[in-house]
Protein backbone atom coordinates (compact mmCIF):
# COMPACT_ATOMS: atom_id res chain seq x y z
CA UNK A 1 0.00 0.00 0.00
CA UNK A 2 1.43 3.31 -1.11
CA UNK A 3 -0.11 6.52 0.20
CA UNK A 4 0.37 9.08 -2.52
CA UNK A 5 0.67 12.75 -1.64
CA UNK A 6 -2.07 14.96 -3.12
CA UNK A 7 -1.19 15.52 -6.77
CA UNK A 8 -2.30 18.83 -8.23
CA UNK A 9 -1.77 19.83 -11.84
CA UNK A 10 -2.94 22.87 -13.84
CA UNK A 11 -6.05 21.35 -15.32
CA UNK A 12 -7.00 18.72 -12.74
CA UNK A 13 -10.56 20.09 -12.32
CA UNK A 14 -10.28 19.79 -8.54
CA UNK A 15 -12.36 22.26 -6.53
CA UNK A 16 -13.26 22.74 -2.88
CA UNK A 17 -16.10 20.53 -1.66
CA UNK A 18 -17.62 23.67 -0.12
CA UNK A 19 -19.04 21.77 2.82
CA UNK A 20 -20.57 24.79 4.56
CA UNK A 21 -22.70 25.54 1.50
CA UNK A 22 -24.81 22.36 1.81
CA UNK A 23 -28.29 23.17 3.10
CA UNK A 24 -30.38 21.18 5.57
CA UNK A 25 -32.45 20.07 2.57
CA UNK A 26 -29.30 18.71 0.88
CA UNK A 27 -28.38 16.72 3.97
CA UNK A 28 -31.94 15.41 4.26
CA UNK A 29 -31.79 14.09 0.68
CA UNK A 30 -28.53 12.27 1.50
CA UNK A 31 -30.10 10.85 4.63
CA UNK A 32 -33.13 9.53 2.78
CA UNK A 33 -31.04 7.97 0.00
CA UNK A 34 -28.69 6.48 2.56
CA UNK A 35 -31.45 4.94 4.67
CA UNK A 36 -33.22 3.50 1.66
CA UNK A 37 -30.08 1.81 0.31
CA UNK A 38 -28.75 0.63 3.65
CA UNK A 39 -32.04 -1.14 4.33
CA UNK A 40 -31.97 -2.74 0.91
CA UNK A 41 -28.35 -3.82 0.55
CA UNK A 42 -27.72 -6.38 3.31
CA UNK A 43 -27.93 -9.75 1.55
CA UNK A 44 -27.69 -8.03 -1.85
CA UNK A 45 -24.37 -6.13 -1.82
CA UNK A 46 -21.16 -8.12 -1.36
CA UNK A 47 -19.46 -8.33 2.04
CA UNK A 48 -16.54 -6.19 0.84
CA UNK A 49 -18.90 -3.33 0.05
CA UNK A 50 -20.80 -3.60 3.34
CA UNK A 51 -17.54 -3.74 5.29
CA UNK A 52 -16.15 -0.73 3.45
CA UNK A 53 -19.28 1.24 4.17
CA UNK A 54 -19.03 0.43 7.85
CA UNK A 55 -15.32 1.10 8.00
CA UNK A 56 -15.76 4.54 6.51
CA UNK A 57 -18.32 5.50 9.09
CA UNK A 58 -20.13 7.25 6.23
CA UNK A 59 -22.92 8.27 8.48
CA UNK A 60 -26.54 8.37 7.56
CA UNK A 61 -27.40 11.84 8.74
CA UNK A 62 -25.09 14.08 6.69
CA UNK A 63 -23.32 14.34 3.36
CA UNK A 64 -19.81 13.17 4.24
CA UNK A 65 -16.91 15.57 4.45
CA UNK A 66 -14.35 14.46 1.83
CA UNK A 67 -11.46 15.35 4.14
CA UNK A 68 -12.75 13.00 6.83
CA UNK A 69 -13.35 10.20 4.31
CA UNK A 70 -9.88 10.72 2.84
CA UNK A 71 -8.24 10.43 6.25
CA UNK A 72 -9.78 6.97 6.74
CA UNK A 73 -9.13 5.83 3.17
CA UNK A 74 -5.57 7.11 3.35
CA UNK A 75 -4.62 4.91 6.25
CA UNK A 76 -6.51 1.90 4.88
CA UNK A 77 -5.57 1.77 1.18
CA UNK A 78 -3.75 5.03 0.44
CA UNK A 79 -6.63 6.58 -1.55
CA UNK A 80 -8.16 10.01 -1.13
CA UNK A 81 -11.27 11.77 -2.43
CA UNK A 82 -10.97 14.99 -4.44
CA UNK A 83 -14.01 17.17 -5.20
CA UNK A 84 -14.93 17.88 -8.83
CA UNK A 85 -17.85 19.76 -10.42
CA UNK A 86 -19.16 16.68 -12.27
CA UNK A 87 -17.94 14.58 -15.19
CA UNK A 88 -14.39 15.53 -16.14
CA UNK A 89 -12.32 14.82 -19.27
CA UNK A 90 -11.17 11.22 -19.65
CA UNK A 91 -7.47 11.93 -19.40
CA UNK A 92 -7.97 13.97 -16.22
CA UNK A 93 -10.12 11.22 -14.71
CA UNK A 94 -7.55 8.54 -15.51
CA UNK A 95 -4.69 10.63 -14.14
CA UNK A 96 -6.51 11.01 -10.82
CA UNK A 97 -7.17 7.28 -10.57
CA UNK A 98 -3.56 6.48 -11.43
CA UNK A 99 -2.55 8.65 -8.45
CA UNK A 100 -5.07 6.99 -6.11
CA UNK A 101 -7.32 10.04 -6.11
CA UNK A 102 -11.02 9.42 -6.61
CA UNK A 103 -12.80 12.40 -8.21
CA UNK A 104 -16.20 12.78 -6.54
CA UNK A 105 -18.96 15.14 -7.60
CA UNK A 106 -19.71 17.57 -4.77
CA UNK A 107 -23.39 18.39 -5.45
CA UNK A 108 -26.42 16.32 -4.49
CA UNK A 109 -29.49 15.57 -6.60
CA UNK A 110 -32.85 17.22 -6.01
CA UNK A 111 -35.92 15.60 -4.48
CA UNK A 112 -37.46 14.97 -7.91
CA UNK A 113 -34.41 12.89 -8.84
CA UNK A 114 -34.37 10.36 -5.99
CA UNK A 115 -34.81 7.40 -8.35
CA UNK A 116 -33.07 8.46 -11.51
CA UNK A 117 -30.22 10.71 -12.46
CA UNK A 118 -28.41 11.12 -15.79
CA UNK A 119 -25.04 12.06 -14.30
CA UNK A 120 -23.23 11.15 -11.10
CA UNK A 121 -23.89 13.19 -7.95
CA UNK A 122 -22.25 12.96 -4.52
CA UNK A 123 -24.51 10.10 -3.48
CA UNK A 124 -23.57 7.93 -6.44
CA UNK A 125 -19.89 8.86 -6.26
CA UNK A 126 -19.42 8.51 -2.51
CA UNK A 127 -21.96 5.91 -1.39
CA UNK A 128 -21.55 3.95 -4.63
CA UNK A 129 -17.81 4.07 -5.26
CA UNK A 130 -15.92 4.84 -2.08
CA UNK A 131 -16.72 1.79 0.11
CA UNK A 132 -14.92 -0.62 -2.23
CA UNK A 133 -11.86 1.63 -2.20
CA UNK A 134 -11.43 0.37 1.37
CA UNK A 135 -10.69 -3.07 -0.11
CA UNK A 136 -6.99 -3.47 -0.95
CA UNK A 137 -7.48 -5.50 -4.13
CA UNK A 138 -10.22 -3.35 -5.54
CA UNK A 139 -8.20 -0.26 -4.61
CA UNK A 140 -5.27 -1.57 -6.67
CA UNK A 141 -7.59 -2.55 -9.54
CA UNK A 142 -8.93 1.00 -9.83
CA UNK A 143 -5.45 2.49 -9.88
CA UNK A 144 -4.43 -0.04 -12.56
CA UNK A 145 -7.54 0.95 -14.48
CA UNK A 146 -6.43 4.60 -14.37
CA UNK A 147 -3.03 3.73 -15.79
CA UNK A 148 -4.68 1.50 -18.38
CA UNK A 149 -6.99 4.38 -19.32
CA UNK A 150 -4.08 6.66 -20.16
CA UNK A 151 -2.63 3.88 -22.28
CA UNK A 152 -5.96 3.15 -24.00
CA UNK A 153 -6.26 6.84 -24.89
CA UNK A 154 -2.91 6.76 -26.61
CA UNK A 155 -3.89 3.57 -28.47
CA UNK A 156 -7.31 4.86 -29.54
CA UNK A 157 -8.93 2.00 -27.60
CA UNK A 158 -10.89 3.93 -25.02
CA UNK A 159 -14.37 2.74 -26.09
CA UNK A 160 -13.25 -0.85 -25.46
CA UNK A 161 -11.73 -0.11 -22.06
CA UNK A 162 -14.76 1.97 -21.06
CA UNK A 163 -16.86 -1.18 -21.37
CA UNK A 164 -14.68 -2.86 -18.78
CA UNK A 165 -15.33 -0.01 -16.33
CA UNK A 166 -19.03 -0.14 -17.05
CA UNK A 167 -19.42 -3.89 -16.62
CA UNK A 168 -17.21 -4.11 -13.52
CA UNK A 169 -16.85 -0.89 -11.50
CA UNK A 170 -20.35 0.39 -12.33
CA UNK A 171 -22.49 -2.71 -12.89
CA UNK A 172 -20.52 -5.71 -11.68
CA UNK A 173 -21.91 -8.73 -9.84
CA UNK A 174 -19.88 -11.22 -7.81
CA UNK A 175 -20.49 -14.88 -7.05
CA UNK A 176 -20.39 -15.87 -3.37
CA UNK A 177 -21.17 -18.97 -1.33
CA UNK A 178 -24.55 -17.40 -0.61
CA UNK A 179 -25.42 -16.60 -4.22
CA UNK A 180 -24.89 -13.56 -6.42
CA UNK A 181 -24.08 -10.23 -4.81
CA UNK A 182 -23.66 -6.69 -6.12
CA UNK A 183 -20.42 -4.76 -6.16
CA UNK A 184 -21.05 -2.23 -8.99
CA UNK A 185 -21.56 1.36 -7.86
CA UNK A 186 -24.24 2.10 -10.42
CA UNK A 187 -26.29 -0.67 -8.85
CA UNK A 188 -25.63 -0.14 -5.13
CA UNK A 189 -26.65 3.50 -5.50
CA UNK A 190 -29.89 2.60 -7.33
CA UNK A 191 -33.00 1.55 -5.41
CA UNK A 192 -34.68 -0.22 -8.30
CA UNK A 193 -31.68 -1.81 -10.04
CA UNK A 194 -30.41 -3.28 -6.74
CA UNK A 195 -33.36 -5.63 -6.87
CA UNK A 196 -33.72 -5.93 -10.63
CA UNK A 197 -30.16 -7.13 -11.24
CA UNK A 198 -30.50 -10.02 -8.78
CA UNK A 199 -34.17 -10.91 -9.00
CA UNK A 200 -35.43 -10.27 -12.51
CA UNK A 201 -35.31 -13.04 -15.10
CA UNK A 202 -34.90 -10.80 -18.13
CA UNK A 203 -31.23 -9.72 -18.08
CA UNK A 204 -28.37 -12.02 -19.05
CA UNK A 205 -25.86 -12.86 -16.33
CA UNK A 206 -22.55 -14.04 -17.76
CA UNK A 207 -19.29 -15.19 -16.24
CA UNK A 208 -16.53 -12.59 -16.40
CA UNK A 209 -14.87 -12.68 -19.83
CA UNK A 210 -12.62 -9.78 -20.79
CA UNK A 211 -12.98 -10.16 -24.54
CA UNK A 212 -16.75 -10.64 -24.32
CA UNK A 213 -17.00 -7.47 -22.20
CA UNK A 214 -14.95 -5.41 -24.63
CA UNK A 215 -17.24 -6.47 -27.46
CA UNK A 216 -20.46 -5.66 -25.65
CA UNK A 217 -22.18 -2.29 -25.98
CA UNK A 218 -24.05 -0.93 -22.98
CA UNK A 219 -27.04 1.25 -22.25
CA UNK A 220 -26.94 4.36 -20.17
CA UNK A 221 -30.68 5.05 -20.21
CA UNK A 222 -32.19 1.99 -18.55
CA UNK A 223 -31.43 -1.12 -16.48
CA UNK A 224 -28.61 -3.20 -17.92
CA UNK A 225 -29.53 -6.08 -20.21
CA UNK A 226 -26.33 -7.98 -19.48
CA UNK A 227 -24.40 -8.27 -16.22
CA UNK A 228 -20.97 -9.88 -15.89
CA UNK A 229 -20.24 -11.93 -12.79
CA UNK A 230 -16.76 -12.22 -11.26
CA UNK A 231 -15.73 -15.08 -8.96
CA UNK A 232 -13.56 -12.84 -6.80
CA UNK A 233 -11.73 -9.52 -6.85
CA UNK A 234 -8.52 -11.50 -7.28
CA UNK A 235 -9.91 -12.95 -10.51
CA UNK A 236 -10.75 -9.44 -11.74
CA UNK A 237 -7.34 -8.07 -10.86
CA UNK A 238 -5.41 -10.99 -12.34
CA UNK A 239 -7.46 -11.17 -15.54
CA UNK A 240 -6.87 -7.48 -16.24
CA UNK A 241 -3.16 -7.41 -15.38
CA UNK A 242 -1.71 -8.46 -18.79
CA UNK A 243 -0.93 -5.90 -21.49
CA UNK A 244 -4.17 -5.12 -23.35
CA UNK A 245 -2.48 -4.00 -26.57
CA UNK A 246 -2.93 -7.31 -28.45
CA UNK A 247 -6.43 -7.72 -27.00
CA UNK A 248 -7.48 -4.29 -28.30
CA UNK A 249 -6.29 -5.28 -31.77
CA UNK A 250 -8.13 -8.58 -31.67
CA UNK A 251 -11.39 -7.11 -30.38
CA UNK A 252 -11.32 -4.25 -32.89
CA UNK A 253 -11.57 -6.87 -35.64
CA UNK A 254 -14.58 -8.62 -34.10
CA UNK A 255 -18.24 -7.64 -34.34
CA UNK A 256 -19.82 -5.76 -31.47
CA UNK A 257 -22.42 -7.54 -29.35
CA UNK A 258 -25.81 -6.12 -28.51
CA UNK A 259 -26.34 -6.02 -24.73
CA UNK A 260 -29.63 -7.88 -25.03
CA UNK A 261 -28.13 -10.76 -27.05
CA UNK A 262 -26.55 -14.00 -25.90
CA UNK A 263 -23.96 -15.53 -28.24
CA UNK A 264 -22.79 -19.12 -28.53
CA UNK A 265 -20.24 -20.04 -25.84
CA UNK A 266 -21.89 -17.72 -23.32
CA UNK A 267 -22.05 -19.31 -19.89
CA UNK A 268 -25.30 -18.16 -18.39
CA UNK A 269 -25.42 -17.86 -14.63
CA UNK A 270 -28.66 -18.68 -12.90
CA UNK A 271 -30.12 -16.47 -10.21
CA UNK A 272 -29.54 -17.96 -6.79
CA UNK A 273 -32.52 -19.55 -5.07
CO1 LIG B 1 -19.91 5.87 -11.19
How are the elements arranged and paired?
Elements: H1 24-40, H2 47-56, H3 66-76, E1 80-84, H4 90-98, E2 101-105, H5 122-129, H6 136-155, H7 158-170, E3 173-176, E4 179-182, H8 185-188, H9 191-199, E5 204-207, H10 210-215, E6 226-230, H11 233-239, H12 245-252
Helix pairs in contact: 4-6, 6-7, 6-11
This protein binds cobalt (II) ion (CO).
Contiguous uncertain segments of 5+ residues: none
> How much helicity do the residues have?
40-55%
Q: Largest beta sheet: what is the strand line-up?
A: 4-3-6-5
Strand percentage: 5-15%
Rg on CA atoms, Å:
18 Å
Biggest pleated sheet: 4 strands, mixed
Plain-language structure description:
The mean pLDDT is 95. The longest helix is centred in the middle third of the chain and has 20 residues, at 136-155. The chain has helices at residues 24-40, 47-56, 66-76, 90-98, 122-129, 136-155, 158-170, 185-188, 191-199, 210-215, 233-239, 245-252, and strands at 80-84, 101-105, 173-176, 179-182, 204-207, 226-230. It is α/β, with parallel strands linked by helices and 273 residues long. It starts with 23 loop residues before the first helix and ends in a 21-residue tail after the last helix. Helices cover 45% and strands 10% of the residues. A 4-stranded mixed β-sheet has the order 4-3-6-5. The relative contact order is 0.13. It contains 12 helices and 6 strands. The protein is globular and about 55 Å long. The structure holds cobalt (II) ion. Residues 120, 124, 128-129, 170, 185-186 line the site of cobalt (II) ion.
Amino acid sequence: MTAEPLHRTDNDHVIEQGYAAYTEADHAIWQDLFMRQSNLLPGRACAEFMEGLQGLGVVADKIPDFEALSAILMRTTGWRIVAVPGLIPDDVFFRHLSERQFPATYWIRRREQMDYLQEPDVFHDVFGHVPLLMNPIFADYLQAYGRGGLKALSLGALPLLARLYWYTVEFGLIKTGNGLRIYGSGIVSSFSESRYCLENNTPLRLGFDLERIMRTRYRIDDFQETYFVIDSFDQLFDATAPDFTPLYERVAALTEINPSAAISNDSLIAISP
